[in-house]
Structures are given as structure tokens and as C-alpha cells.
Design goal:
heterodimer, A: alpha/beta, 21 strands, B: 765 residues, alpha/beta, ten-stranded mixed sheet, five-stranded parallel sheet, 21 helices
């Protein structure tokens, strides 16, 4: 602040910001990389005046003033330029002299990120670390019973089913009568969840798809990935890799005309169709791809003109009741591929999930139900939606599974869980916990961004600027200057690493259960928690 | 068996141990499924003990066997033969079951048939002893050699259980040491753990030699010829830790080329819908790939001093000239903007330029413009262009009129000033207290203009008819008559008041009469001027009253306070009496002289109706054009203001008239003022208090918005991307090499003048 500067209500000091840049003058070589790389211009070159008062020994001579000028890195305090803590400056610094540190107290910035009456919007996910999934332990370690298996030595076939599974007698009857049997896919229980072409950069999206193709074709792991709502590149639609792809249809219907036109030319059917009704990270809210991100490429893939806002409303326009909407939508999507492709809805976790599920049990076409919990991520949403709205996945999934069990249909409609799986890095443990609570498989989004592309986001509100297209890692940007930082081949390689490592960890959890070929779906006697209330709520063992 | 009853394993073990302890060295056991027969025979103290097992042996024959022990099982063996064997030799004259040799560390096991699953698993080789050996005449079962950590296994493949696979399902998983010689086909092994290697001569010699021993022990010598064909043998060894790179698989690069692009087409997923280069780039980029680009915005923005000067003098330009040693040019430059640089800038102006100076933002004293103003008394007249034939009548010879006429003449137009006074100068010449400015300064500057500006001395007030005639005779008429008519309070005794303008005119000629006590109604700056002049004329008790907080400010106020004038407020005048001023409160402020400094208003009775008025003043637009397009109005007749406001209005009006005469639209306002935040004052001494001369001023000027040519940007650029390019004639520019620049913005951060700006690069894609 200048010496005669005034304060306004939103005048903040560095101390008031969530992230403080520590800069070491002695080590800095003034190379300019930190200011060049900072995505939000939080730092700039500063001119500093240093004053030395020189006095002589015994005060023999008159004291004097000497001024020196030096240059260094200064952090801006304007809320519009507040540091987001991404630490790209530290990454590029050749002398390790700059680093953002999290403020030691609640920042004051949060009270000033509503300029113009517009509440804070951001990307990322709930700024709440931890969660119930991390607390669940696997307590059934069979050494001599079951019998135990050796994760490293035994062969496992980790597969799950996506599709409506008929009771055996029903299935046999239909086989005899040559009736229609719902299509079922045997897939890997860890899926890459919906992230659109547009929300993700082209390099990131291609990297994920390439990794998935590699897992399928080189390693025999039937991993699939959902497109999200942003269309699907024409080449992918016409390639054999489409069979690893779950096409998503959501309220914006982007790119669907291109998909429909590609159907006659498809070499393979897609893995499945996901109908998105809600997103765990921002339940009840829609999406918006800002016009400035809708460049030529995005526009082509989404089948829209360039430079317009692309809203995905919170609701579909032509659906008026749960029975009608789900049935109508599922029918339409089945019909598109001649009833050969499983179709399932995805909803955000909510207290109304049971109503949806009960409806699906009565719909013989419903292939599955995917539930996205409150810890899921998003490219852009209101902070209030992200931090305060939504339902934890564990109890919601559990309720659904137990309800199916009550109906005796737990083996008929698979449940897929997502939303913060692996949010603390414990991917396999979280996934296994969800599976034992009743999930047939889990979906991941932000985890794969972090693991496969080095996403810097965290529950401590680090980075989280996916919404403004300035992703410093090039994951969620449409600017070639940013997304070319990301090499699709390297992303693909990391996807492979993640799945291979996950596979080993999941086996480590499954082997002591003596399971090698069928997932322990709903095997809740194998899990426990040291929280009595949570144990009661989830109907799992209470262990201390 | 003992007495027709089967002995328990525990009892049989006791019998065997006792027998060995008693010196027996050959035992025959008729077994009936007892556990662990023949192990642990250390009581023989190193002497060889031979045991023949007849019947049906139980599990773990020879377990924990000692090197002195030789066991022959005369038929097939149960599970885990030689379990944890520490040196015993065990011959099985039949098939072996599961787990043969599991965890053995020394000793030899010879099996005359096939063995079951998990043979030779978890075996060790202690370097202190010979490695353990397992010899199998036929084939081995599934999961052979799991976690094998040492020893030698030989699988001869003779009459294998599955002739198509002598090694069983998934052998060698977790194998870290040892060798497996085998003969016959196999269906794969754990490639991560083991590898096939050629059989060296030394290995073959060993095998050939020991094969004879094995066949002898198992009474199968006749097979030697069939089995010892070197070409039929293969050797598996464990991979060393360094060789374990995990499963070999196709690289992602190869997958991308051979599979991905092959299926999708060149350019991968979106190669058909975009031609944008998507190849990887570094984080720090230059050229077209920079996110931000520095722009040298020299003179794009107006300096605060220039922007705040109503006359619009580019003050920082003059300091630049002085820094460059071109003092004369700096001085002369003033006349391009004002005919009164010394009178106004040097003395009478409140110097708004200094109030606007960026240095205030750091609480530093502003660059002192007065010094340069005063030096401008010596400014040389520029050469004037020949007349264009266009003529403009200027009504009023005060600062506004002179300014517009001066500027018009500089453009080659003839401007004729019509004024009631004998000499030009208006209030400036007639009503400014002498204390404020030496008379010779004003007269010198007036002389300068008089030389070039024709002046018609009007003998009587202008009439509407006269004005209409001016419009006919001249291309344009500019009204600059000022605000001469005192605005007097309408109170009883108002005739006792003297108007301030009259008082000041008289006092300037030293002709004002004042009493001892004097009240000035209206405590503005004119009131202050009256106060100081009255003091000079001999008044002793001077009071300025105002109905609200006095608006006086600056030098005028200081001067009035210095002579001891009293400011009183709020005071509402009710009447002027012989005693003095009677206030609404009833109080009377005694005074012999009462001066009304309550403002002036224009006297514009001569204007035609086409020139619209607003509350007594002439209406004018931003170019000072009135509602009559041929008529302009400037100065106090439009709005009361400072001298510099009048001079600036004259300059702007002249510019507009010149533009219109040239057939152009009048140019708009000057550019936007530079943002104070862009100026870096850290380069200057904050303790600097007073300017002694123009050179000090020039040095301390940050040159806001105009490049100071200091070279800091060239020096600070980490990439050495900035250079100074001379454009001839002293002109220059700072240029950036895009191929070196990384867009760090250091130039913008370091520039004292706020020239550099970091802007977003052109959008891509």
C-alpha cells in the first residue's frame, strides 16, 4: 500500500489471504519464471527501497541516510489476484526460494470473494478433508478359514457386471423362449467417471482414453471411462475403442447429434449409456461452459457454434415425473443401439435416492444405478453447492444396497458409487469399502486427475481454479499454451500405473477374504469402524 | 505296527529315536500313515542311519532331516516329503504327492515318478552348505517352485502325468534363486521371476554326472540313454533383482503409434477436427507460446501533472528536456500552451499539476513547477506562421481571451481582441494584489503577447448589434468577457459595500481608501486578496465572514492569516449600517469599510438570444462552443475558475476552431491519465524536502507515462530480451525480442514511469 493509501472494506493485507508467498531474497536470482508461470498473477516484480542509517563509532561523524533499491517478488493483495496456493512458482524456481504457505488462521479473503454480488465460484471439490470411507477397516483377515489367498501369488479376476442381471430361472426361461435378455458388460470395478471433453483439455482427455485403451488391449483389464457431457470426438465414435467408452447424456444434450449420426458407422457398441441426472459435487445445480472456453475444437465436438455459453441446466426439460422420466429416457437410449447397450441413470447422492432405486427395480430395462456422493469434484460450481450441499456416499449407497437386499434384488441391479473415492489417496481402500458396503464398482474423477496428470487441487482450497480455464497443469484448460504442458502419452502411462497399482492393492484387501474371482459386493461382515454411530448407521461392525 | 496295532506317530518317533540312540544304524519301518518318519536323527552323532519305509508312509517323511540320514520310501509318498529338510537323502520309489521338498534347505530328494503340486517351493540355499536337490523322474504338479530361493530341481519328464506340460500350471511364481533343469514341453512359467538360459558345459557335466546317480538310486539306470540327450534339456534360473523390471509390455509411445493412431488416424483422437499443434511444450515459454506479452506503452497515457493541469501543459516533457540538457527548449515549450508561463505557473496558479503529482502517493513533496514557471519569463517567442486569412474576433482581453487569440495566431489565424480596457490582461493586470506577483513579470509577459495580438480598444459597451456585426465580419467570435459584475447581497445598506473587484483595482493603483476596521463579506480567495491589500493600505482590524465554512485556501488564505485577518463563520449578514455589519444574530461587527467579496457574474447583455445562458453564465460544450456554432465562450463567462482554467479553455477553443476551419471534427479530450499504481517511486529519495533548482526537479520527476530512457527495463529483463532502438533524431523505442521474452512482466514491475504493461497474448485455438 502506498504511504498515503486509504483502506476500503475489501483492502486486505498479505496476512489476510489464504496463501502467503514466502520469498527468499538471498536465494532469488530474479529469473522471472515464477511471475511468468503464476496462473492468476498473484505475484509480480516489486521495487523495494532499503534505508540504512549510518552512524559512526563514538558518533564522531554526523549520522547519515543511505538509500538502496532492490528488486524482488511481491505478492498482490487485491482479492482478484489472491494467490491460490498452486505452487507453480515453487515448481519452476531454480533456486527453491519461493513457496506459498497456507495461512495459520482462517483467511479474510473468504468474506470478499463476492464482488458485484456474485458469490464465489470455483472448481475442485468440497474443502473438507477426510471422510468416513477412510475410517473403515477391513477386519476379516482369514488366515486359515475361507481360505486365505496370496495377493501376489494367486490369480485374481477382478471384474464386475454392468447391466440388469436376471434371476437364473428367469434367464433360463428367456433363453429357452429366445426372449430378450438385458445386455451385460463384464468390466473392471474401477471406472473413470464422467468428465467432459471441454471440462478437460484435449490432451488430458486423449491421455485418459489412450490409457483406458491400453489397459484393455495390452493388459486385458476391461476398464471403461465415461465421456461426461461434452460429446465424443467423431474418430472415437467410429473406432473400436468405443467399446471402452460409456457415453453420457445429460441435460445439455451436447454432441448427441454427432453421436446419432455416427451410429450407422460404429464398429463397436459403446460400453454403456449413462443418463446424468445429478452430480455429487454440486447437487441440484447445472453446469456452464463459459463462452470463452468454447473454441473451435470444443464447438466441433459438441456440435455448437464457437463463442457461446453452453449451459447444462440442473434439470432435463422434458421429464416431469420420476416414473416417466426414467422410463422414457432409458427406453430411448436402449432403442438407439437396438437394445444391445446397457443404460443406467446417474444421480447425486440424496435422501431421495431410494425412491429412484425403487423405481428402477420395477423397470426391467434399468441396467444399474450410479450414485455420486458429496465429495465428488467438478470443473465449476458455486462454493456453497460444493461445500454445503450433497449427501455422503457411504450411507446413501448402503441404504440403497440394503433396500435391494430387502427386495432380494441385490444381485440384479448393480450400484456404482462415486464422489471422493480416494480423496485422501486411499483409492483401493475406499473402493473396497464401498464395494463391501454394496457397490458393484466405483467411479473416480478427481483422483485420476491428481494421479494421472498432477492436478494440484486439495481439500485445503489449493488451486481450485478449473472454472476459469487457467489450470496450470493443463488439465482443465482449453488454451494450448496451458494444455500443451500435458503430454497425452504420459497421462496414459500414469493411468496404466494407477490401475495396475490399484489392482494390487485391491487384491491385498480381497486375498485375505479368500476371494479371487468374485468381488465381495456387500460383504459387510468384513468391514468395521471405530465409530459407534457410523457402525450403527451403516450396519457394519463396531470395532475398537 | 506293534502287536497288530498301529503305533501313534508320537510313539513311533520315540521308538525310532530310542533305536538310533541305542546304536542302531539301519531301520525298517512298516508305516501306517505316521507323520514325519525319519527326521531329526541327530543322536547318531554323525554316523549314517539308513531307514527303509515300507507300507504307507504319512506326511512329511524326513522332515527336518539330518545330513546323516538316508531314507528310502519303498512306494509312493504322501505330502511334504523332505519338509524343512536340513540334509537328509530321501529316495521315493513311487510318485510323490504335494509339497515335495517344501522349504528344504539341504539334502537330496529322488522321486522315481511324478510329484504333485507345490514341489520345491520356498527352498533355500545356505551358502555354508551344498544346495538342496530335488530329482523327479516324471513331471511336477501345479505351482512348482513357488518362492524357490535356492537349490536345484531336475525334472526328467519321463512318462509325465501330462505329456504336454512337465512343469505344471504357473511354475516359478516368486522364484528368487536356484535352477530348474527340465526335459519336455511346458506351458509357461512366471517370466517376471524366472528366465530360460542356455545350458553351459559345466552345468551339463554336472547334470550328466548326477543323472547317473539319480537313476541308480531309483533303479532306473536303463533310462540313461533316453534321458541324457542334452538337446532335450532346458534350464530355468531365477532373475536377479536387477533383472526384474516387471512384466515387459509395449511402451506407451509404441502403443500410441502402432495401436492408437493406427485405429484413429494420424493425430489421434481429434486429428481430424483440428490442425492445432498439440505437441508438448515447456512450462516456461517464449514467443507465440508466452501467456503474457509486455507492451511498451510510451505516451499512451497522460502524466498526472499534465492531466490535472487545466491548461494541459505536459509538465513531465519539460523535465525530460531539462534532464537531457535542453533547458532552453524546456522553457520555450511553455509558450506552446500558455502565453503566461511565468505569471501563472510561476506565481498565480495554485499549480494543480503539483497537487496531482504522483509523488504525493508516497507522501513525497511534488516536483516544484513554480521554479520552471518562473524561469519561463525568458521563453522565446516561437516563429509565427503566415496568416491564413481566417479571422476570429475575441471579445475580452483577459487571460482567456489572450489565450485563445495566442493559440489561434500560432495556428496562423488572425485573432482580434476587443476590450474595454486600454491594455490587455483583464483581472490579471488590474486586480491581482502586487504582493502576489512582481509587476514586471506580468508586464513582461503582456508585452510579449501585445507584440503579436491586435487589440481594439472599445470605447463603449458592446451592443447586440455590434456583436451581430462581429459575426458578419469574422469567421468566429469568442466571448471571453469574464465575470465582472459583482454579485452583491440584497440587504439593507448594501450601497455601503464596496465590490471586491473595485477595491482590488483601486488598491492596485494604491488608491483604495480603508478604515481602521474592515469587514469582508465572503471569505473566499478574493476575500483574502482584499484582506491582504487592505492591510497594505492600512487597515488594522480585518474580519472575513462567511455564511458557512470559509472556502479560502492556498497562498491567499495563508497570506490573509499572516496579516492577522480573522475568519468568522457562520455569519449571515442582515444589514450594513454605519456601525458596520449587522448579523442575523443581532450582533454588529464594527467596521468603517465593508467589502463584498461574494462573487461575480458575467455581464452578457450584448449576447443575442441564439447564445443560450444557464443561470447567468454562457452555455458551452466540451470545446467551448455555444449554442450558436459560430460563437465560442471561454473563461469565467462560462464557469468561474482559476486563471489556468481560463487559459486552458482558450487553448481548447482555439484547437476546436482550428479543426473546424480545417474541415475536421474537433479533437476530443486528451488521453486517459496514467494509473498511479504503475509509477515506482522507490527509486527516489523520500526524505528529499525542497527543490533548489530546475535540475533537481527534473531528476526527481518519475516521468509518469513517458519513457525516462533510464534503461532499467533493459537491465532487469532476466532474458536480456529488451533493447533500445534508435529511430533517428533522438527518437527511440524499447523493443522486445519475442523469442527471448518469457512474459514475466519484470519490465512492467521495475519501470519507474509505468510505461510497460503486461497484456494477455493473442488467443490461440
Amino acid at each position: 500500500m502506498s504511504s498515503n493509501g486509504r483502506i476500503a472494506p475489501s483492502t486486505l493485507s498479505v496476512k489476510d489471504l489464504p496463501w502467503q508467498i514466502h520469498w527468499d531474497k538471498d536465494k532469488c536470482t530474479l529469473c522471472g519464471r515464477c511471475t511468468a508461470v503464476c496462473p492468476v498473477h498473484a505475484i509480480e516484480l516489486g521495487v523495494f527501497r532499503k534505508r540504512l542509517v549510518q552512524t559512526s563509532v563514538n558518533l564522531k561523524e554526523a549520522p547519515s541516510n543511505v538509500h538502496e533499491v532492490f528488486h524482488g517478488i511481491r505478492q498482490k493483495t487485491d482479492p482478484a489476484y489472491a494467490c491460490v496456493g498452486c505452487a507453480m512458482c515453487s515448481l519452476v524456481c531454480p533456486n527453491d526460494c519461493i513457496m506459498p504457505y497456507r495461512s495459520d488462521e482462517a483467511d479474510k479473503l473468504r468474506y470478499h470473494v463476492n464482488r458485484g454480488g456474485q458469490p464465489r465460484r470455483r472448481g475442485g471439490r468440497r474443502n473438507v478433508p477426510g471422510g468416513i470411507l477412510d475410517q473403515i477397516k477391513f477386519i476379516r483377515i482369514s488366515m486359515l478359514t475361507d481360505p486365505a489367498l496370496d495377493a501376489g501369488r494367486h490369480e485374481f479376476e477382478l471384474r464386475t457386471l454392468l447391466g440388469r442381471i436376471l434371476p437364473p430361472e428367469e434367464n433360463l426361461r428367456l433363453v429357452r423362449e429366445e426372449g430378450w435378455i438385458p445386455p451385460i458388460r463384464e468390466i473392471y470395478p474401477l471406472m473413470i467417471g464422467a468428465m467432459s471433453f471441454g471440462a478437460l483439455s484435449p490432451t488430458m482427455w486423449e491421455g485418459l482414453q489412450m490409457g483406458v485403451a491400453y489397459l484393455n488391449e495390452e493388459l486385458g483389464m476391461p476398464v471403461c471411462m465415461c465421456t461426461g457431457e461434452g460429446g465424443c470426438p467423431p474418430r472415437l465414435l467410429r473406432s473400436r475403442f468405443l467399446k471402452y467408452v460409456i457415453l453420457q447424456i445429460a441435460s445439455g444434450y451436447f454432441g448427441w447429434d454427432e453421436i446419432i449420426r455416427a451410429i450407422p458407422e460404429m464398429k463397436e457398441d459403446p460400453c454403456a449409456i449413462e443418463i446424468k441426472y445429478g452430480q455429487g459435487a454440486k447437487p441440484g445445480d447445472g453446469g456452464l461452459l463459459m463462452w470463452h472456453k468454447v473454441n473451435k475444437l470444443i464447438a466441433t465436438v459438441r456440435g455448437v457454434p464457437t463463442g457461446i455459453n453452453l449451459p447444462s441446466p440442473p434439470t432435463h426439460q422434458t421429464k416431469y415425473s420420476i416414473e416417466e422420466s426414467v422410463a422414457k429416457m432409458i427406453q430411448s437410449m436402449y432403442m438407439a443401439w437396438g437394445f444391445r447397450v446397457p443404460v443406467y441413470p446417474k444421480i447425486s447422492a440424496t435422501t431421495t435416492a431410494l425412491a429412484v432405486l425403487n423405481n428402477l427395480t420395477r423397470n426391467p430395462y434399468a441396467a444399474a444405478l450410479a450414485i455420486d456422493g458429496e465429495d465428488g469434484g467438478t470443473g465449476a460450481a458455486y462454493n456453497v453447492s460444493m461445500d454445503h450441499m450433497g449427501h455422503p456416499i457411504a450411507s446413501n449407497l448402503r441404504d440403497c444396497y440394503l433396500n435391494l437386499a430387502k427386495l432380494g434384488m441385490q444381485n440384479e441391479i448393480p450400484l456404482f458409487a462415486g464422489g471422493g473415492v480416494g480423496k485422501s489417496g486411499n483409492l483401493a481402500a475406499n473402493a473396497a469399502a464401498l464395494i463391501m458396503l454394496g457397490a458393484s464398482g466405483v467411479q473416480i474423477g478427481k483422483y485420476i486427475m491428481q494421479a494421472a496428470a498432477g492436478c494440484l487441487g486439495s481439500e485445503s482450497d489449493r488451486c481450485n481454479i478449473c472454472n476459469i480455464g487457467l489450470c496450470p497443469k493443463g488439465i482443465t484448460s482449453q488454451d494450448p499454451r496451458l494444455y500443451r504442458r500435458l503430454d497425452p502419452e504420459q497421462v496414459a502411462e500414469r493411468v496404466v500405473d494407477v490401475f495396475l497399482a490399484f489392482d494390487i492393492e485391491l487384491k491385498k484387501i480381497m486375498a485375505p477374504l479368500g476371494r479371487s474371482t468374485s468381488l465381495p459386493i456387500g460383504m459387510s461382515d468384513a468391514i468395521g469402524i471405530s465409530d459407534r454411530s457410523a457402525a450403527d448407521r451403516l450396519e457394519i461392525k463396531y470395532v475398537v | 505296527m506293534e502287536e497288530g496295532r498301529r503305533l501313534e506317530s508320537r510313539v513311533l518317533e520315540e521308538h525310532i529315536q530310542e533305536a538310533v540312540g541305542a546304536g542302531r544304524r539301519f531301520l525298517k519301518v512298516k508305516a501306517h500313515g505316521q507323520h514325519g518318519i525319519g527326521g531329526r536323527l541327530w543322536r547318531a552323532a554323525g554316523e549314517t542311519v539308513r531307514i527303509e519305509v515300507h507300507g504307507t508312509c504319512g506326511q512329511r517323511v524326513g522332515s527336518m532331516g539330518f545330513p546323516n540320514t538316508c531314507i528310502e520310501i519303498m512306494g509312493p509318498a504322501s505330502d511334504d516329503v523332505g519338509w524343512l529338510n536340513a540334509g537328509a537323502e530321501i529316495v521315493v520309489h513311487g510318485h510323490g504327492s504335494n509339497g515335495v521338498g517344501n522349504a528344504m534347505a539341504q539334502g537330496k530328494i529322488y522321486v522315481a515318478g511324478n510329484v504333485g503340486a507345490r514341489a520345491m517351493t520356498m527352498t533355500k540355499h545356505n551358502p555354508r552348505f551344498d544346495p538342496p536337490e530335488l530329482w523327479v523322474l516324471g513331471s511336477v504338479g501345479d505351482y512348482f517352485a513357488e518362492f524357490m530361493a535356492g537349490g536345484i530341481a531336475v525334472v526328467c519328464g519321463h512318462q509325465a502325468q501330462d505329456p504336454s506340460n512337465v512343469l505344471g500350471y504357473r511354475p516359478c511364481v516368486g522364484m528368487v534363486g536356484g535352477k530348474v533343469f527340465f526335459r519336455g514341453p511346458h506351458k509357461g512359467f512366471s517370466g517376471v521371476d524366472a528366465k530360460l538360459v542356455p545350458i553351459e558345459d559345466k552345468d551339463w557335466q554336472w547334470l550328466e554326472e548326477h543323472l547317473k546317480v539319480f537313476l541308480e538310486k531309483t533303479h532306473s539306470g536303463q533310462l540313461l540313454g533316453e534321458i541324457s540327450d542334452r538337446a532335450q534339456w532346458q534350464l530355468l534360473v531365477a532373475r536377479s533383482p536387477l533383472e526384474r523390471g516387471g512384466r515387459r509390455r509395449r511402451s506407451m509411445g509404441a502403443f500410441c503409434r502402432e495401436v492408437w493412431d493406427n485405429e484413429l488416424g494420424t493425430g489421434g483422437l481429434i486429428g481430424d477436427v483440428t490442425d492445432l499443434d498439440r505437441s508438448p511444450i515447456p512450462v516456461i515459454t517464449s514467443g507465440i507460446l508466452r501467456r503474457y506479452v509486455p507492451v511498451w506503452e510510451n505516451r499512451k497515457y497522460v502524466s498526472p501533472c499534465e492531466a490535472t493541469c487545466p491548461t494541459g501543459i505536459p509538465v513531465q516533457e519539460r523535465w525530460r528536456l531539462i534532464r537531457e540538457g535542453r533547458v532552453d527548449e524546456a522553457v520555450d515549450m511553455a509558450l506552446a500552451y500558455t502565453p503566461f508561463p511565468a505569471t501563472v505557473c510561476g506565481y498565480l496558479c495554485p499549480n494543480l499539476c503539483m497537487q496531482g503529482c504522483s509523488r504525493h502517493t508516497a507522501n513525497m513533496v511534488p516536483v516544484n513547477m513554480k521554479t520552471l514557471g518562473r524561469a519561463s519569463i525568458d521563453a522565446k517567442m516561437p516563429e509565427l506562421p503566415p496568416l491564413t486569412g481566417k479571422r476570429i474576433a475575441v471579445v475580452g482581453g483577459g487571460p482567456a481571451g489572450i489565450s485563445v487569440a495566442w493559440q489561434l495566431r500560432r495556428q496562423g489565424h488572425e485573432a482580434v481582441i476587443f476590450d474595454m480596457e486600454e491594455t490587455l490582461g483583464g483581472k490579471m493586470a488590474s486586480a491581482i494584489p502586487k504582493s502576489r506577483i512582481p509587476e514586471e513579470v506580468v508586464s513582461a509577459e503582456l508585452e510579449r503577447v501585445k507584440k503579436v495580438l491586435p487589440h481594439v480598444h472599445l470605447q463603449q459597451r458592446l451592443t447586440r448589434e455590434d456583436f451581430e456585426q462581429l459575426k458578419v465580419d469574422y469567421d468566429f467570435v469568442v466571448i471571453a468577457v469574464g465575470a465582472q459584475k459583482p454579485r452583491l447581497l440584497d440587504v439593507p445598506g448594501k450601497e455601503r459595500m464596496i465590490a471586491a473587484i473595485d477595491f482590488l483595482r483601486r488598491s492596485r493603483q494604491d488608491g483604495a481608501q480603508v478604515g481602521k476596521r474592515l469587514v469582508i463579506i465572503g471569505a473566499g480567495n478574493v476575500g483574502c486578496d482584499v484582506a491582504t491589500e487592505a492591510h497594505r493600505m492600512g487597515a488594522e482590524e480585518i474580519t472575513l465572514i462567511h455564511y458557512r465554512r470559509p472556502p479560502a485556501s492556498g497562498e491567499e488564505k495563508e497570506a490573509a492569516e499572516a496579516i492577522g485577518a480573522t475568519f468568522r463563520w457562520p455569519c449571515v449578514t442582515k444589514a450594513i449600517t454605519e456601525q458596520g455589519v449587522e448579523l442575523a444574530t443581532g450582533e454588529v461587527i464594527a467596521a468603517e469599510t465593508v467589502v463584498a467579496a461574494t462573487g461575480h457574474e458575467p455581464d452578457v447583455g450584448f449576447l443575442p438570444e441564439t447564445v443560450a445562458l444557464e443561470r447567468g453564465f454562457v452555455q458551452a460544450n466540451a470545446f467551448f462552443q455555444t449554442t450558436d456554432p459560430q460563437v465560442f465562450a471561454i473563461g469565467d463567462v462560462v464557469k468561474l475558475g482559476f486563471l489556468t482554467d481560463a487559459i486552458g479553455a482558450g487553448r481548447k477553443a482555439a484547437g476546436a476552431i482550428t479543426d473546424i476551419l480545417a474541415g475536421k471534427r474537433p479533437r476530443g479530450d486528451m488521453g486517459q491519465m496514467v494509473d498511479y499504481d504503475r509509477i515506482r517511486l522507490e527509486y527516489f529519495d523520500p526524505r528529499f524536502m525542497e527543490f533548489d533548482d530546475i535540475h533537481q526537479c527534473a531528476e526527481n520527476c518519475s516521468s509518469c507515462g513517458t519513457c525516462r530512457d533510464c534503461g532499467i527495463c533493459i537491465a532487469i529483463c532476466p532474458q536480456g530480451a529488451i533493447s533500445r532502438k534508435g529511430n533517428g533524431g533522438g527518437d527511440f523505442e524499447m523493443v522486445v525480442d519475442p523469442e527471448r521474452c518469457i512474459g514475466c512482466g519484470f519490465c512492467a514491475g521495475a519501470c519507474p514511469c509505468g510505461i510497460w504493461s503486461l497484456v494477455e497474448n493473442e488467443p490461440m485455438g
